[in-house]
Amino acid sequence: MNNDILKTLYSEEDIKQACKKLGKQISEDYKGKTPIIIGVLKGAIFFMTDMVREMDIYTKLDFIDVSSYNGGTKSSGSVKLIKDIDIDVNGQDIIFMEDIIDTGRTLKYLKELLADRGANSIKVCTLMDKPEGRVVEVKADYVGFEVPNEFVVGYGLDYDGKYRNLPYVGVLKPKIYSDQ
Ligand SMILES: O=P(O)(O)OC[C@H]1O[C@H](OP(=O)(O)OP(=O)(O)O)[C@H](O)[C@@H]1O
Ligand SMILES: Nc1nc2[nH]cnc2c(=O)[nH]1
């Protein structure tokens, strides 16, 4: 699997440091509160589990699964809800945990969904933000890294369902892609 990677963008150590920094910041901002941390499956699994262990506040955890990429490198344009959260978010403070914000479609959909359900506040923490990919306007509140306009894999992010278990974030060799 490692042989398919052209270059590493963020090492395990880079990611660990980013989680520490963001976890400290969130702990300060939410002191005395119990935010509901919602992991956006599947890409955010590793980031979410690393992040919550860097937070020194009470939290409740839930997961939501939406998809718009169908396994390839291009957004299909429509976001589908695959698995909903269990917690009632009415009046609650929400922090979405994302691995990456690219076109912004996923996040826009999620923020609107929870705003409609009466959440008190909705913030977004993402490991990576790719501003050049943006199609709809949406902003993250906590960002680990601003990434160049390249398709990245690893640390939860997939290509064709694979590479999620790479412990770092990298870019694939061009010969690997079948849809470019
Ligand atoms: O800003 P966007 O262009 O909407 O892209 C961001 C979303 O794309 C990926 O999810 P994907 O739909 O591929 O599902 P996955 O997390 O299960 O891989 C990623 O995990 C984000 O949730
Ligand atoms: N794996 C992966 N999924 C994404 N979803 C949106 N952008 C990306 C990306 O760069 N890589």
TrEMBL record:
Function: Purine salvage pathway enzyme that catalyzes the transfer of the ribosyl-5-phosphate group from 5-phospho-alpha-D-ribose 1-diphosphate (PRPP) to the N9 position of the 6-oxopurines hypoxanthine and guanine to form the corresponding ribonucleotides IMP (inosine 5'-monophosphate) and GMP (guanosine 5'-monophosphate), with the release of PPi.
PANTHER family hit by this protein: HYPOXANTHINE PHOSPHORIBOSYLTRANSFERASE, HYPOXANTHINE-GUANINE PHOSPHORIBOSYLTRANSFERASE
Domain Phosphoribosyltransferase: 8-159
Family to which this protein belongs: Belongs to the purine/pyrimidine phosphoribosyltransferase family.
Record keywords, A-Z: Cytoplasm, Glycosyltransferase, Magnesium, Metal-binding, Nucleotide-binding, Purine salvage, Transferase
InterPro entries referenced in this protein's UniProt entry, alphabetically: HGPRT, Hxn_phspho_trans, PRTase-like, PRTase_dom
Catalytic activity: IMP + diphosphate = hypoxanthine + 5-phospho-alpha-D-ribose 1-diphosphate; GMP + diphosphate = guanine + 5-phospho-alpha-D-ribose 1-diphosphate
NCBIfam families named among the record's database cross-references: HGPRTase
Name recorded for this polypeptide: Hypoxanthine phosphoribosyltransferase
Pathway: Purine metabolism; GMP biosynthesis via salvage pathway; GMP from guanine: step 1/1; Purine metabolism; IMP biosynthesis via salvage pathway; IMP from hypoxanthine: step 1/1
Species this chain originates from: Apilactobacillus xinyiensis
Pfam (any one): Pribosyltran
Cofactor requirement: Mg(2+)
Record bears the keyword tRNA-binding: no
Keyword Amino-acid biosynthesis: no
CDD domains (alphabetical): PRTases_typeI
Annotated transmembrane regions: none
EC number: 2.4.2.8
GO molecular function: glycosyltransferase activity
Subcellular location: Cytoplasm
